Amino acid sequence: MRLIGERSVASALRWILGLANVFVTVAVLFTGLMLLTSLVLPDFAAGFIDGLSENDNDLRPLLLNERATYLAAFVATLSTWWIFNRLRRMFLAVNRGDAFERANVGRLQAVGTGLIGVQISAAILVFTIPEGIISDLDYRVDLGAWLGIVIVFMLAEVFRQGAAMRDDQQMTV
User: Fold this and answer.
1) Are 126 and 70 within 8 A, CB to CB?
2) From residue 114, how far is each of 5, 80, 84, 148 by CA, in Å?
3) Can you tell me the distance from the alpha carbon of 137 to that of 129, in angstroms, rounded to the nearest whole number?
4) Which of 84, 86, 73 is nearest to 30 (CA)?
5) b or e along 22-53 (b: 16 or more beta carbons within 10 Å of the residue's beta carbon)?
6) What average pLDDT does the chain have?
7) Could you tell me if 103 and 165 are in contact, meaning their C-beta atoms sit under 8 angstroms apart?
8) Which of 33, 60, 115, 162 is deepest in the core (most CB within 10 A)?
9) How far apart are CA 119 and CA 136, in angstroms?
10) d(CA 93, CA 70)
11) Does pLDDT of 133 surpass 80?
12) What is each CA distance from 141 to 69, 116, 157, in whole angstroms?
């Protein structure tokens, strides 16, 4: 099986990311709606959290950590959506045989930014999620994930230099 081009591994990965992107888009819409609800109808948002944690509290105010939970969940899903879309566009460029196009530099930097958003929102979620929703949460700084983010930004610079070299080659007669 070929790695790039039509009916290749890169093409299959692009389609898998597209399918996963449908579910992530639904999650973004849901978490965005819940974040908006927490601002407009805080009693409903508090009841939703109580339902998830199986508490039978009557009307109560929405706590600050619960609002932060809604915000962090929205940022995490939005960052994931952002990453998937940029990766799909990169796979499309690779399938066309133009991996070192200038737009891929920005796409890689956007993926790195999205990964930072996922890591920060994961840390916020661990510290703000109400008890009873998820039983044993423990946050540890994942050095592998942060190293991966640094590598993505380094790859963006490699792509920048590769695009410059490609442009120089095309200018040579």
Assistant:
1) no
2) 27, 7, 9, 12
3) 9
4) 73
5) eebeebbeebeebbebbeeebeebbbbbbeee
6) 84
7) no
8) 115
9) 18
10) 35
11) no
12) 19, 12, 26
Handedness of CA 146, 104, 99, 81 (dihedral sign): positive
Residue 132 is predicted with a pLDDT of 54
DSSP E strands in 18-159: the ranges are none
Task: Give per-residue pLDDT as tens, 139-167.
Answer: 677 889 999 999 999 999 999 998 888 88
- Mean pLDDT of the 167-171 span: 82
Which residues lie closer than 8 Å to 76 by C-beta, 6 or more apart?
31, 117, 118, 121, 122, 125
Could you tell me what percent of the chain has a pLDDT over 90? 41
pTM: 0.79
d(CA 139, CA 130): 15
Element housing 169 (H / E): helix 143-171
User: What tokens appear for 8 in the block?
Assistant: 């290749």
